[in-house]
Amino acid sequence: MEKGYPNHVARKKGGLVTMxxxxxxxxxxxxxxxxxxxxxxxxxxxxxxxxxTKAANTLTNFGGTASLTPLIGAFVADSFAGRFWTIxxxxxxxxxGMISLTLSAVLPHLRPxxxxxxxxxxxxxxxxxxxxxxxxxxxxxxxSGGIRPCVVAFGADQFDEQDPKQNTKTWKYxxxxxxxxGASILVAVTVLVYIQDNIGWGWGLGIPTIAMFLSIxxxxxxxxxxxxxxxxxxxxxxxxxVSVAAYKKRKLKMVSDSNLLYDNEELDTAISLGGRLxxxxxxxxxxxxxxxTEEDSVKSPNLxxxxxxxxxxxxxxxxxxxxxxxxxxxxxxAYAQQGTFSLQQAKTMxxxxxNSFQIPAGSMSVFTIVTMLSTIALYDRVLIRVARKFTxxxxxxxxLQRMGIGFVISIIATFVAGFVEIKRKAAASAHGLVDHPHxxxxxxxxxxxxxxxxxxxxxxxxxxxxxxxxxxQAPESMRSTATALFWTAISAGNYMSTLLxxxxxxxxxxxxxxxxxxxxxxxxxxxEYFYWLLTLLQVLNFxxxxxxxxxxxLKPIEVAKKESAHESGQSGVELGNRx
Length: 579
Hints:
Mean pLDDT: 81
Order of helices and strands: HHHHHHHHHHEHHHEHHEHHHEHE
Shape: globular
Number of helices: 19
Strand order of the largest sheet: 1-4-5
Number of strands: 5
């Protein structure tokens, strides 16, 4: 019996019936993460009475740790634990962290006493109370690292690529995965933040903690329905083995016929259940790892000297994905400005809906999320059907084309943002408010809606295309690791934003005190220049992406057709034409 998905089991397990169980886990994880992070600075400063700089550093350290843990979770899943058990254990770890955070918000002795009326200096959290916070944050970061890269790959695993009734469902899954994730984020930044600010942190943290508990039960209950792929060992070890073998044989001459390269179907069975990768002509120096010499044993090869074509192509696939991965960083850099400078713009503008109610500046991201959700729904229900008539593809357009559309929309978003900033400053000047950064400028905050909405539309195209690209083009045994790259691109984009802002702030400073990005008075800055710099960088990045996409080689797969090939001993070849 073949290791992994036996034929008689694969037909019965997986499919759409598993989605409620998987999505429940993802929704509650996002409720917990976003519901706390969106308002964490408030919790640290008002509940634990941390100084602003210390609170900011805590957030930075937590964010940096959380951005690295998906790589750890993906490694564990792909190497030995499998995706189901990684998600299950990670969810429990996350649950413990959330319980700890909730208890610290509820139990009086786990946080400093409330500030007394008239006190200038409040009692800061002691070392024990801070230690509980740090341990709780670490547990949530570790738990999130096991959930994020695995749940998306695990969900896509439920659709059998060799089953014609299921293999076209994967692209739909990515759309609705991102939709449910966005919907949970929308609830977190509205309902949960409101509860935290107006009802209390006990309820604000307790609700996602309870939801997480229920999601773990739902996810585990669905176990009999899941298709579970056995882990195939450390993918990093295999990549390293190919690299070492190619280096050891670097002086050998290439064989004249690629059919002479080493192939061992039995050896590759555990890591190529969906089909073996076929030889490609790029990066021929790596092919030397598959050249058989007199020193090599073909029956029990030393994998540090001899590797199969499939394993060599695994490494080639990872290398080929690198440039496409890098192209997504700058889009996240542009997107990140919504939480920084766009938010600062909103703070200076008229946010009143009525005389007594005004939109919180931090809630402007709702326009991004709502637009993203609307675009996903429109794309799935309308745009795909229209595009299908022209392209003939079941998914409408390829994921590379989808990413390209996202890049173009993001360019428009930052370009428009620059002109909106000019209008905002003109209003400040017209009303004599240039020197009054804390006074409200009589211009509606809804002028910012286009840039927020365009970023949401760009994310609906680019981010989902990016995620789908990683899952589809990664070697089958490395899909958790590949989807973790999606999160590392987000992390790199945020770090790039920090670097870019720092460089612009430093080198745009003048002797008279002016600066493109001033520390205190945005009205005297040149934020529009910064937005247009981002626009220019994104145009260059788009040109780079188009070149990468044109040169990109889709992974070619030799797929064993489940019934006909099994009976006739033949196999079909699929040259990456799923996109």
